[in-house]
Amino acid sequence: MTVDALTDVAGLRVGHATRRGDGWLTGTTVVLAPEGGAVAAVDVRGGGPGTKETDALDPRNLVQKVEAVVLTGGSAYGLDAASGVMAWLEERGRGVRVGPDPAHVVPVVPAACVFDLGRGGDFRARPDAALGREAVEAAAGSALGAPVAEGCLGAGTGAAVGLLKGGVGTASVVLASGVTVGALVVANAAGSVVDPTTGVLYGELYAELFGGRRVAPPEDEVRDAARARLARLAEQAVAPPLNTTLAVVATDAELSKAQAQKLAGTAHDGIARAVRPVHLLHDGDSVFALSTGVRELPADALALNEVLAAGADVVTRAIVRAVRAAETVEGAGGVWPSYGELYGGGG
Q: Between vectors from CA 24 to CA 18 and to CA 25, what angle results, nearest 5°?
C-alpha cells in the first residue's frame, strides 16, 4: 500500500525536528537513505543558494552514494544541522570508507537551507547540530513506508510562499512500469503560488496531476477579501522576501549519477509550474535526486523519460500539498496567513 509520499520509494525514511515558541520558528528535515546509501545528484537554480557538499554530487566526482540529505531552516547558519546527522552516521559506521578500520568513515551529507531567520521573533534562533541529530533519529525510528507529516514542521516550520505561509509537502506516483517516483518539498518561495485573477493555486491548474479534478475558484467576495488582506500585508513588509524552495525527488529505479542529475534538473519544472516567478536572485531553489536502485530501469530511453516527467509532476503536487497543509502563523516575527484561511478549501 502506498501513502502518496517520498517514503513510497523503497528504503527511504523521513524525519522532522521542529522548534516553535520563545522566538523560534524553524526546523530541520532529514531524508535517510537505506544503509549503503543512495545514488545522489543535485541541480541548483536559485540565485541565492545555501548548500553543503553539493560539489560531491557532480557526476565527474568520486562519491557515488550518500546516506542522507538534510533540508533545514536557519539560512546558512542552519547548515550546521548536517553536522549532527554526520555524527549520527559516523557512530554507525555509515559513510565513505577512508581507512582500514570499519569505523574510519566520512559520511557525505548534502544539505540545503531555506531563509527563515527571525520569523519566530529571534534572529539567532536557528537549527544546529543537535536539531539535525533529532531529525535523523526521528527518520531512523520511523517504519519503512510510513506516512510523512506535512505542513508547518521540520524545515517548513518557518517557511513562507510570497505573503502566505509555506511548509513541507510530499507526493508520489507508481508508473505503469512499476517504478516509483516520489518527492518531498519545502515550499518557501519569493514568488507567489496563487493565480491573482482566480485565487486558485498555480499548481492546481494542472488538473491532470490531480486525477482530472479541476478546482473550483473561490467566490468573488472571498478572493477580493484575500487580495485586500495580502495588499495590506505587502504594505507592512519592511524587507524583500529572502526565500528558497527545496526538494528531494527520488525513485527506486536504478539510475547513474548522470541520470540522477537529469532527474534533479527536470524536477525544477515542477517548481516552475507551481510558483511564479521562480529561480530569482532572492531564491536558492535546489533539487536533490536520489536513486535507491532496487528496480532495474529498462535500457530504452523512453523509460527514463517517464521517470523524468513523473519527477516534475510529483514536485508540483508536493508544493500544492505543502501550501494546503500550512497553518496561519502570527507572532513576534510577523504574520503569514495560510491559503486555507484566506481562500478556504484546505489548510
A: 60
